[in-house]
Amino acid sequence: MTASTAFHLLDERIQRFLWVEQWEALRDVQELAIPLIVAGDQDVIVAAATAAGKTEAAFLPALTHLLQHNPAGLIVYVSPLKALINDQFGRLERLCETLEIPVWPWHGDVSSSVKSRFLKKPSGVLLITPESLEAMLCNRGTAVAGAFSNAVYFVVDELHAFIGSERGKQLQSLMHRIDSVLGRQVPRIGLSATLGDMQLAATFLRSGRPVAIVETGSGGATLKVLVKGFEEPARLDKAPGPNDGLSTTAIARDLFTNLRGSNNLVFPNSRREVERYAHLLSGLCEEARIANEFWPHHGSLSREIRNDTEVALKQKDRPATAVCTSTLELGIDIGAVKSVAQIGPPPSVASLRQRLGRSGRRRGESAILRGFVIEDALGSQSTFSSQLRLDVVEIAASISLLLENWFEPPVTHGAHLSTLVQQLLSVIAQYGGMNASSAYRLLCGSGAPFEGLSPAMFTELLRHLGQEKILQQDGSGLLLHGPRGDQLVNHYTFYAAFLNDEEFRVVTGGKALGTLPVHQLLVAGQRILFAGRTWLVESVNDSDKTIFVTPSKGGAPPLFSGTGGRIHSRVRQRMRELYRGSGLVRFLDPTAQRFLDEGRLAYQGLALDERWLVDQGPYCLLLTWLGDAANEALACRLSAAGLPSALAPLGVEVTKGDLRTEVIIERVMALAHEAMPGVDDLLAEAKNLQRQKWDWALPPKLLRATYASLNLDLDEAQGWLASVHSLPNDA
DNA sequence: GACCTGCTGCGGTCTG
After folding, report:
1. Which positions 693-712 on chain A have a beta carbon less than 7 angstroms from any atom of strand B?
2. Can you name the residues that pair with A255 across neighbouring β-strands?
3. Spatial contact of A418 and A604, defined as CB atoms under 8 Å apart
4. CATH code of the domain occupying A7-215
């Protein structure tokens, strides 16, 4: 420890604490970050793998700065999760107690007495969520200057979880608004898992100013991968209803055999599948007369049930495997995990990478990934997708990109005008009204979160919000809340920037089990799977949004629905390379390899290398081999040109109507020479563009703009059109 | 269209 120069930069009281705690050495990331942060005068990103000591890398030097330069100073730590705030409070409190620095947790579960005590003497470390920060600015506008006057640092944890989302835009805006009140830029520290493009993260943290970057590698951990294929026989009865498929049962048996006795994570891609597998696996434990080792975990389960699963994973004396959704992708500490199972293609390479980051964290151990994929038995009725074996090719493409250390960059170019509506209302609450030009400067000016929105667009937004009675102007031109704006702001749901589905509570004997999406059809007497068990629905109360259930025996269809997600162009291109290739992919088992070979055969049989258009009777399939953002843009372009089109698995589907295929080919090729129309014309006929929380409050033009910025890749679509005349097409 | 995350102030009742 004494050999470390970084160690000697820390305050003596912190050095002494580390001695007492018997720290042997600073971690790499700490050595590198301490000299950059201790001066308290620049923005820094600290990127390292989970559990590499990032939090200390930020707090040890930031606290040193506080002790030596600004004893009444304040460090503001922002977390995406309440659970993380509670974790960090535990970790920081002991150190800070010896330093006589107060630590203040602040989120929805923290009592108001703690909050008012902080506001009386706002110094030390504040641990807060973006939503609570929003509430503070909104409701205590006059207290903001005082509360943050001694702010030394903003520390943003799990930065990667914010980049590209509504919450990320909101957080940028909140930090910018506080800087604006203080009339200075409070230095920012971003803590993150390793990211592909650090420059994107740096620009997100602060635009228009250099950001120092500390990045340490993943430590060269090895990865063992095996993907197993399962063939689902054709159903003879063709009965609709629950798919209690043989493959699902076979996968459950495989998981039971291989995962028993150790800690693992299993990721089917939906809550519905989590329920199905957790139920099957618990049943297998019961059959084998052993204690249950498989626990469900997803966002609809109650905190209590999720806790049981987390505790089971953490405790050392009995093995436990969680069957889960992305709830266990984020930073809560669940201890080391031996392997990760992915059932079906992952939502993205980035999420697969995040999931895998949970495995092989003990020294000398490899990370283990077990992939599972189900394909239907081929027959005369097999669909195009089924013949091509899309799922096995997609999971193979994702894993091969993962092995090359590539993953999707976050989408940082979204306009997020929904969140601008929120921020406008919040700023008006904070200042008790604001004139239009000041509001524009604050939110859309240079370095502001919504920079790039033109004054004309902003004016159009204000006019529309006025018409909708969300805003109004007083005699002096001051913007104020209109009656509807007042209602919006004065409800606690205002503070979150993101939307969520309305849900029913599921209750048994007075105990809450969790929640279910409200759009499900429910009838008394029905059996449902929930929390890995079967329940009988006793009654449903519509006004209380509550479902009362009692334990029951026997299977039933689970209640969650669907799959989705957007695929990146790079994944589609890798899929095509796999179709064009030959030979073995080393991480596929014999069945999965056979699926791939069958897909390759279909690819050749359909001559997909020699054409970009496949005639499918009532419609034509345009094969772009691009990602969904490009395909959707292309579908809009074609529809606007009079060829009604929709997204398809490998490209775009054009409805032929009265047109012959040759005419469609001609008209598509003619578009190569025409410029892409503006977004407003492109989406003129498009309906159902509202995706984000306040999208409903936007005028049509701005709704189209914000939708396109998040969902469409116009350049890629135009690039494909421009190249189409040089592609072979023996249709 | 998979998944995930978050939330105030006030008025009521009860306890020490």
Report:
1. 711
2. none
3. no
4. 3.40.50.300
| Nearest residue (CA) to C1' of B1 | A564
Average pLDDT over residues A199-225: 86
- Residue A112: CB less than 7 A from any atom in strand B: yes
Which stretch of DSSP H or E encloses residue A486? helix A483-489
- The count of other CB atoms within 10 Å of the CB of residue A506 is 24
Q: How far is CA A139 from CA A65, A155, A426, A495, in A?
A: 31, 23, 9, 11
* Residue that has been written with the tokens 């080919």 in this structure: A665
Each residue of A164-209: pLDDT tens digit? Answer: 999 999 999 999 999 999 999 999 999 988 777 888 999 999 988 8
If you count them, how many residues does chain A have?
Answer: 731
The order of strands in the sheet holding A478-481 is A434-435, A478-481, A471-473
- A463 pLDDT more than 80: yes
Handedness of CA A591, A592, A595, A600 (dihedral sign): negative
Residues 544-563 of A with CB under 7 A from strand B: 560-563
CB of A429 closer than 8 Å to CB of A489: yes
**Same fold across A223-403 and A417-495:** no
The Cα–Cα gap between A439 and A662 comes to 54
Q: Straight-line distance from CA A111 to C1' B13, in Å?
A: 18
Å between A493 CA and B16 C1'? 35
How does residue A105 score in pLDDT terms, banded at 50, 70 and 90?
A: very high
Instruction: Round to whole Å and give the CA distance between A479 and A475.
Output: 10
In this model, does residue A149 exceed pLDDT 80? yes
* Ordered strands of the A212-215 beta sheet: A103-106, A124-128, A74-78, A151-156, A188-192, A44-47, A212-215
Q: How far apart are CA A175 and CA A161, in angstroms?
A: 17
Nucleotides of B under 7 A from a protein CB: 1-9
CA distance A172 to A162: 9
Taking the CA of residue A290 and the C1' sugar atom of nucleotide B9, their distance in angstroms comes to 51
In Å, what is the CA distance from A337 to each residue of A264, A316, A361, A369, A703? Answer: 5, 11, 7, 11, 44
Match 């110094």 to its residue by tokens.
A123
| Digit-coded pLDDT (tens) for A682-726 | 998 777 788 899 999 999 999 999 999 999 999 999 999 999 988
Q: What is the CATH number of domain A223-403?
A: 3.40.50.300
Structure confidence by residue, pLDDT tens digits, A391-440:
999 999 999 999 999 999 998 999 999 999 999 999 999 999 999 999 99
> In angstroms, how far apart are the furthest CA atoms of chain A?
82
Assign domain A417-495 to a CATH class. mainly alpha
Mean pLDDT (chain A) is: 89
Say yes or no to pLDDT of A314 above 70.
yes
Q: How confident is the model at residue A559 (pLDDT cuts 50, 70, 90)?
A: very low
Helix (H, G, I), strand (E, B) or coil at A395: helix
Question: In what order do the strands lie in the sheet containing A527-530?
Answer: A511-517, A503-508, A546-551, A533-541, A527-530
Are residues A369 and A225 in contact, defined by beta-carbon separation less than 8 angstroms?
A: yes
Whole-angstrom Cα distance, residue A6 to residue A9? 5
Domain positions in chain A: 7-215, 223-403, 417-495, 504-552, 610-724
Residue pair A390/A375 in contact by the 8 Å Cβ criterion: no
Residues A607/A601, Cβ–Cβ less than 8 Å: no
Query: Which of the two residues, A224 and A362, has the higher pLDDT score?
Result: A224
Where are the alpha helices (H) located in A268-348, listed in sequence order? 271-287, 303-314
Strand, coil or helix: A197: coil
User: Can you count the helices (H) and strands (E) in chain A?
Assistant: 28, 25
pLDDT at A237: 54
Q: Is the CB of A342 under 7 A from strand B?
A: no
Please determine, for residue A563, whether its predicted confidence score (pLDDT) is greater than 70: no
pLDDT the model gives residue A562: 32
**Distance from chain centroid for Cα A397:** 21
